[in-house]
C-alpha cells in the first residue's frame, strides 16, 4: 500500500473514531428529512413537500454547514501534529512531506464525502419511499449532482484548512483563522457583493463582471451548481435574482469547483515543503 | 563507507541567530557515539540536520553515504531509526495500533512490530490507549518504533528523560545489543555521567560549536585533566593535621564532609601518591576517580571561555 493510502486510512479511521463522520451523517440525514417534512409548514401544510424545494433548502443549509465541518476536521492536520509533538517523528519516517499532507487530505475528504453520501443518501431513500411522485430520474440526477458538488465543496474547505494548518505554528491561531475563513466565505463575501450591487446600481460593468465574481467563492459555485439546475421558484429568489442575467454552464462550474480543491491543496503542499519543523 | 555520519563545516542559522557553527565530526560505523551538551547547545538542531528535517545554512552532511535532503532522502530514512526528545504519539490509538501504523509507514512487518513491543516490555499494555501511558512507557514505545525495519543507524535524542533507573539500565542494554549487532548509534544527553560507560566516543557541543571530539580516554588525555583520590580518615584521626600534611606535599585538595578529602592527582604522580596514602595509618578508605565526562565538559568549556577572554 502506498504511503498516501496508509496515512489516508488512518485519518479516515480517526474521523470515524472521533465520531465526526457519524455525527455529520446523522446531522445531514435529520436536517434533510426535517426540511423535507416541515419545509411547507409556513404555508400551512406538513408532510413531504416537492423534491425541488427540499433540495433548494438543503443547498442553502449545506452551504453553511459543509464548509464549517471541512474546516473543523482539517484545520489541525499539520499544526495539531506539530503541537502534540508527533510531526517530528512522522517526518523522520520514509515518507515525503507531499505524501504526508496528501494522505491526510485524502483521508479527511473521504470521511466527509462518506458522511455526505450516507447522510443525504439515507434521507433521499426515505423521501422516495414516502413520496412516490418524487421517484423520477430527474430527482435522482439532481440528488447525485447535489451529493457530488457537496463532496467537492467539502474537499475545497479541507484544502483551505490544510493551507491554514501549514501556515500557523499555533493550534489556537489556526482555529481562529479557520473560523474567520468560514465567516468570510459564508457571509462577508456575499455581503460585499450585495454592497457592490447597491452602489453600482446595476450598470453595465456589474452585468458583465458580477456573474464571474461568484467564481471567487466556492460556496457560491456550489449554490450555482445546484440552484441553476432547479430553476426559479425554488426558494432562493435573492440569489437567483442576482445571477438571473447569466447562463452558467455546469461543466464550467464543476471546473471552477475543482480548481477550488486543487489550488489550495497545491499551495498547502508548497508551503509545507518549505516549513521548518 | 566507514562512517555512518560524516559532517563537515556544518552551520545552521534561525532568523539570523546561529544555532550551529562550523561543526565537523564523524560517527564511525558500528560505534556508539554520545552527543553531549547542555540544553541549547545545539544537539537537537544537529540531529534534525542529520535526519534531513531541516536544511543547513552552510556545510555538508552525509548519512550512510547519502545526503539527508537529496533525492534519496525518503529511502535513506528507512535505514535510520529515530527517537525524538520527549516523544509523543497519537493518544487516541493503542500502543499496538501506533506501532503497527508506524511499521506500515516503514514497510516493516506487523510481526516485527509485536516482537519489538515485547522487547521493550510493553506487551502487557499493547491494547491500552497511549494517552494512558506513563512517560516511561511512551519512551519505551519510542524506542520500539526506532528499531522498526532494523535500521543501520539509530539516533536517540535524550532517550532516558523520564525513565526510572531500571528502565534507564534496560535502555542501555538495548543500545549495547545494537552495537553488538553492528548498528551505529548516536545518543544525545545532557546527563553526562550517565552516558560515559555506554559510549565509544563523544562529541561535545557548546553554544553551537564543537568543543571536543574523541573517546573518553582521548578526551581525558587532551584535556590533561587529572583524576582525584577520595580519602576517608579514621574517626580518631585529626583532619586539620592531615590537611597540613597535604599542603606541605603541595597537593591540591578539597575537604568534603566527615573527614573526607578529595585530592587532585598530579600528572605521573598517581602511584607515588597511592603508595604514600596506603602507608598512612590515619586513613580508613581510598577511592580513585578518573575525571568524569561532566568534569571534562566543565573543564573544556571553561578552557574555551578563558581563551575567549584572552582573545577579547
Structure described in brief:
The complex is a heterodimer of chains A (277) and B (312). Chain A has 277 residues and is an all-alpha fold.
How are the SSEs placed, and which strands pair?
The complex is a heterodimer of chains A (277) and B (312).
Chain A (H helix, E strand, L loop, with lengths): L2 H15 L2 H19 L12 H24 L4 H6 L1 H6 L5 H34 L6 H31 L3 H30 L3 H10 L4 H13 L6 H7 L6 H25 L3
Helix pairs in contact in A: 1-6, 2-3, 2-6, 3-6, 3-7, 3-8, 3-10, 6-7, 6-12, 7-8, 7-10, 7-12, 8-9, 10-12
Chain B lengths: L2 E12 L2 E12 L3 E5 L6 H8 L7 E6 L9 H5 L2 E4 L11 H11 L4 H10 L15 H12 L6 E5 L7 H16 L3 E6 L2 H4 L5 E6 L2 E6 L1 H8 L4 E6 L5 H10 L4 E3 L4 E5 L5 H9 L4 E7 L3 H19 L1
Helix pairs in contact in B: 3-4, 4-5, 8-11
Question: Could you explain the architecture of this structure?
Answer:
The complex is a heterodimer of chains A (277) and B (312). By secondary structure, chain A is mostly helical. Chain A has one domain (3-274). Chain A is built from twelve helices and no strands. Chain A has helices at 3-17, 20-38, 51-74, 79-84, 86-91, 97-130, 137-167, 171-200, 204-213, 218-230, 237-243, 250-274. The longest helix of chain A has 34 residues, at 97-130. Chain A is globular and about 60 Å long. Chain B has 312 residues and is an alpha/beta fold. Chain B folds into two domains: 3-222, 3-Layer(aba) Sandwich (Rossmann fold), CATH 3.40.50; 226-289, Alpha-Beta Plaits. Helix content of chain B is 36%, strand content 27%. Chain B has a six-stranded mixed β-sheet, sandwiched between helices. In chain B, strands 11-12-10-13 form a four-stranded antiparallel β-sheet, with helices on one face. In chain B, strands 2-1-4 form a three-stranded antiparallel β-sheet, covered by helices on one side. The model of chain B has no long low-confidence stretch (mean pLDDT 88).
